[in-house]
Design goal:
Helix content is 46%, strand content 16%. With 227 residues, the chain is α/β, with parallel strands linked by helices. It has a single domain, classed as Rossmann fold, CATH 3.40.50. The strands form three sheets. Strands 3-4-5-8 form a four-stranded parallel sheet, sandwiched between helices. Helix 2 packs parallel to helix 3 and helix 3 packs parallel to helix 4. It is globular, with a radius of gyration of 17 Å.
Length: 227
């Protein structure tokens, strides 16, 4: 989005990484502000949107991209706390964002919101039931809010991403060629995606070029969900 000329407001718990990314964007001639944010905290998400409105006077697009698995195991092995942690990070955080993003974008004349549901928003996977349930919930929430936002000029979509080559992915795979090869083999295209590929896809969905797209859950997963 910054490369396309957008002024961006970044929010994350990782302060050092967030500040570094904002500095990189500014060093390349872009405009970026970092706000320390815990997406599971309602007031943090309110402050994030408020910062965008306060600094730039408008909000045209928002991407709710946080997610992760707090614990893995069969459902009978998981605790209520682990269930609540995964729903908080992966689903309730999106609710917190939408509560403030929809009215802010509507007041700015309309725009778009994108929620990351991952490919597990439409298929199942053993040992990560809370994550799967949360991501399915993101798809449902996206569709409901798309109907609410339509008359206000606010489009809302979900992206269903497959495995993407990021530092987090490599950590989860143990940084082994065997682990990466196994995950790549789950995708009919025979590889994992790149950060550049998903960034371009998301930028399109947040731009006016996708102005007739709302309430959709769109895959960028190398064919994973077609199996």
């Amino acid at each position: 989005m910054a490369a396309e000329g957008a002024a961006v407001v970044l929010g994350a718990r990782g302060v050092a990484a967030g500040e570094r990314l904002a500095a990189e964007i500014r060093a390349e001639g872009g405009t970026a502000v970092f706000v320390p944010t815990d997406v599971t905290v309602a007031t943090d998400m309110e402050r994030l949107t408020g910062t965008a409105m306060g600094r730039f006077g408008r909000l045209d697009a928002a991407f709710n991209n946080a997610g992760g698995v707090s614990a893995a195991g069969a459902v009978h092995e998981l605790t209520p706390g682990q269930w609540e942690a995964d729903l908080g990070l992966n689903l309730t955080s999106v609710f917190h964002g939408l509560r403030h993003q929809v009215p802010a974008i509507a007041a700015s004349g309309g725009g778009a919101i994108l929620n990351n549901a991952s490919n597990l928003g439409v298929v199942g996977m053993a040992t990560v039931a809370p994550y799967v349930a949360a991501k399915h919930g993101v798809v449902g929430l996206t569709r409901a809010v798309a109907l609410e936002g339509a008359e206000r000029g606010v489009r809302v979509n979900a992206v269903l991403s497959g495995a993407i080559d990021t530092p987090g992915f490599r950590t989860s795979m143990g940084a082994t060629p065997e682990g990466e090869a196994h995950v790549a083999g789950l995708h009919p295209l025979g590889r994992i995606g790149t950060a550049e590929e998903i960034a371009a896809f998301c930028a399109f969905l947040l731009s006016d070029e996708s102005s007739f797209v709302t309430g959709a859950a769109l895959s960028i997963d190398g064919g994973y969900t077609t199996r």
